[in-house]
Design goal:
This is Sec-independent protein translocase protein TatC. The chain is mainly alpha-helical and 255 residues long. It has ten helices and two strands; from the N terminus they run ααβαααβααααα. Helix 2 (32-50) crosses helix 5, helix 5 packs antiparallel against helix 7 (169-178) and helix 9 packs antiparallel against helix 10. The two termini are 47 Å apart.
Amino acid sequence: MPVGDHFRELRGRLLRSFLVFAAIFITSLFFYDPLLNLVMEPYNDARIALGESVETRPYVSGATGPLMLYLKLCGVASLVAASPYWLYQIWAFIVPGLHSKEKKWSRLFAAVAGPLFIFGVLTAYYVLPKGLEVLISFTPDSMESLVEFGEYFSFLSRMLLVFGISFEIPLFVVMLSLAGVVSGKQLGKIRPWLVLGTFIFAAVATPSTDPMSMLSLAIPMTFLFLGAEIVARFIDKVRAKKAIPEYADDEVSAI
């Protein structure tokens, strides 16, 4: 396909993705209250857990703050809700240029990547109340904790994104094994360093400073890395079995 046709195809897919996003965004404007309750639930749970030990309440700053809150919340929700469609458009644009073997690997990646990302996001959402509780508990007794919603929403978004992307990293390891870049034996040799690096990464990557959030990210990632190593060793065995008959055929031909 000529380069101009590729650009026209890309423009068409981007336009369709934008129209779907716009339609979902307009719809989400009518569901603002449920979305706000969903976003505020971790904070409300943390406030309940703190009880009377710390006085805390959320607020919106500035004259345009409520409007920006409205648009930002609906925009992020629409982007997430439309993700299956725009991810499919990216997939449909890339696939025609792949070989059959690469298509098979990319289908595997597409099938597993989504559930792993959602699992990471749900894990972050589950540990958020505890993380917020620890952070707000540092408020001195003589002061009241005022949580600005824009800052809180950015914190929540970063937390969900970090967990979601981090849970994808072991999948990339499996893809590298399928591509022949790393082997299960190599992963076994560096396993202690992978575990140590996972805990260091979790400590640095989590926006929250509490150990609960760090462990909630590090422990599942460690098990996912161990699972990736098992899959990589299985791939190595399958690759070795396929290589033996080919080697035998080469010897027969030489004779």
